[in-house]
Amino acid sequence: MTIEQFTREFEQARPHLKSYLLRITASIEDVEDIVQDTFIKASFNLSNFRGESTVKTWIFTIASNIAKDNLRAKKRWPETVTDICREKALANPDYFIEIGNLMASSPQTTFEIKEHITFCLTCIAKSLPLEQQLCIFLKEIYEFKVSEILEILQTTEAMVKYYLHTARTKMVSIFEGRCALINKEGTCHQCSELNGIFNPKQDFEIEKNKVEFAKKANEPDRNKLLDLRLNIMREIDPFTSNGAVLQLHHLAHNKRVMENFEEK
């Protein structure tokens, strides 16, 4: 493969690679650094690529290894991350001033329930052990086959299947106890709270029922509800969506809060 061919394939994979890295690192700065390091490392080792996997799989393998080295030194986020970060935001008088400035300067600050659903999933998934988080995103969001994931994560098929099963089970359990969109006893009402802040003239119940996931709140199979959440995430690019700037601001806030939380 020539460097020109590789560069074309890398650019085709770049949007998915960036969103994948953002969702596992929660850092725009880390995303840019890892993408650049991945391109440099892959280009330097291009002669070693034998075509035994797709170029995209090879790229994700290199990027995942770099990201894992970075993430292993950091604590996983708690399941209650959104509660902790909400309280910090409400206690910070500058927080909503910053958001007001963003809304005045960017069109990508539309609050939509489906985008917040993916934002919430991103944050809560960081409470999973690292391999479980990577596996569920690679399989369910970026649609890699199990055979490709075991190559990306350099593990066995049995372990990939174990990581996927345990990740799904844990996520279903967390959302069942937290999400008020699917459970009247859920503790988290941030979708409705934020909708009220950003869309005060909007009827939340009407907007909620436009989202397939929320319409099926009574679905007895909670795994199917998780699939609907993951489907929404698969459809949204966190860098280009209508609410991208708003959600990236929220994510940067959560990352800062969690870094301080780790130090205590």
Report on this structure.
The protein contains 14 helices and no strands. The protein is mainly alpha-helical. The protein folds into two domains: 1-74, RNA polymerase sigma factor, region 2, helix turn helix motif (Rna Polymerase Sigma Factor, Chain: A), CATH 1.10.1740; 76-263, no CATH class. Helix 3 (55-71) packs across helix 8 (146-152) and helix 9 (157-178) packs across helix 13.
- In the predicted model, the low-confidence regions spanning at least 5 consecutive residues are none
- The helix/strand series, from N terminus to C terminus, equals HHHHHHHHHHHHHH
Shape: globular
Strand pairing plus helix content: what structural class?
Answer: mainly alpha
Q: Tell me the number of helical segments per DSSP (H or I, 4 or more residues long).
A: 14
Largest sheet: none
Average predicted confidence as pLDDT: 93
Estimate nothing, just give the exact number of structural domains: 2
What distinguishing features does this structure have?
264 residues; mainly alpha; 14 helices; 69% helix; globular
Quickly describe the structure.
This protein is mainly α and 264 residues long. The protein contains 14 helices and no strands.
